[in-house]
Design a protein that fits this description.
Length: 286
């Protein structure tokens, strides 16, 4: 199946600072992709390139289009929710919905209204009267009404309590996602999206350090939980990351036969949060 987004050698400099450094990736329909990395790693710059907001070097196609040249057409097929409220405070909900219906060629008002009917948001509310969680729900209601092939989320639940965060992702998967669409998420809260991701891209210092389907993690990485007594012997197998937990040591290994680890303790597939830390701050960190 053809990729919705395809990047080859994508590079972006801000003066002498290289924010994104010759990265390659594909995002295909039916995938939920997590783009994760520490602050300043290049996540937001990558999103801006995809959305046609910045110039860049290298090859980047979004739905087969150049996002800089064909941005107006591109916005018919892509929706975006950022970590900061981008809706004007003065506008009423009904005015916003009318604006969407009159200006966006792919918008279905009925779908937004059906979604809002299950929230505490009234059409007479002004945006400034809504809590951060309700503003996120309003954003999602608008997205539900757009026949977009891809949804880009930039820290969409930042500052929300756990109830709103959980409901947001449940609604997203149950009411938006299907095999013809894709979702690209950047987040620092990896644990809350781990169960919905199909693919993980870890970016650090502008370079992609991990890019694979979630189902393949166990083929490439193994986690060992061992006692301090066995830790020294296990270290001879060159873990890429290690952390201490009371009287135990937890190590992550890359491309190793797990049979070599079993004698030292409990072997499992690393959680995404641990794998992220290993990729960014592991023993190969320079």
């Amino acid at each position: 199946m053809n990729a919705l987004i395809s990047a080859r050698g994508l590079t972006k400099n801000y003066g002498r600072f290289r924010a994104v450094d010759h990265i390659d990736f594909d995002i295909r329909p039916g995938r939920v992709v997590g783009l994760v990395g520490p602050n300043g790693a290049g996540k937001s710059t990558t999103l801006k390139a995809i959305l046609g907001l910045i110039k860049y070097r290298g090859s980047l196609e979004v739905f087969g289009r150049n996002p800089r040249v064909d941005r107006a057409d591109l916005m018919h097929d892509i929706s975006y929710i950022s970590d900061v409220a981008s809706l004007p405070d003065w506008i009423r909900v009904d005015q916003l919905l009318d604006l969407m219906e009159s200006t966006h060629p792919s918008y279905d008002l009925r779908k937004s209204l059906n979604f809002l009917a299950r929230t505490d948001i009234s059409k007479s509310h002004r945006v400034k009267q809504l809590s951060k969680g309700m503003k996120t729900q309003l954003h999602l209601a608008i997205v539900m009404g757009i026949h977009a092939r891809m949804l880009v989320l930039d820290e969409p639940t930042l500052g929300l309590d756990i109830i709103y965060r959980t409901e947001f992702y449940d609604q997203l998967m149950n009411e938006y996602f299907n095999e013809q669409r894709a979702i690209l998420i950047t987040t620092h809260q990896i644990e809350e999206v781990e169960q919905i991701l199909t693919d993980i891209i870890v970016i650090n210092k502008g370079k992609i350090v991990i890019n694979m389907p979630i189902e393949d993690i166990g083929k490439h990485y193994a986690q060992l939980k061992t006692t301090k007594d066995h830790a020294e012997q296990a270290r001879k197998l060159h873990p890429v990351f290690e952390k201490d937990m009371l009287d135990e040591a937890v190590m992550i290994f890359e491309n190793i036969d797990t049979e070599r680890l079993i004698e030292f303790g409990e072997v499992s597939t690393p959680h995404l949060a641990d794998l992220f830390v290993a990729a960014v701050k592991g023993t190969h960190d320079d």
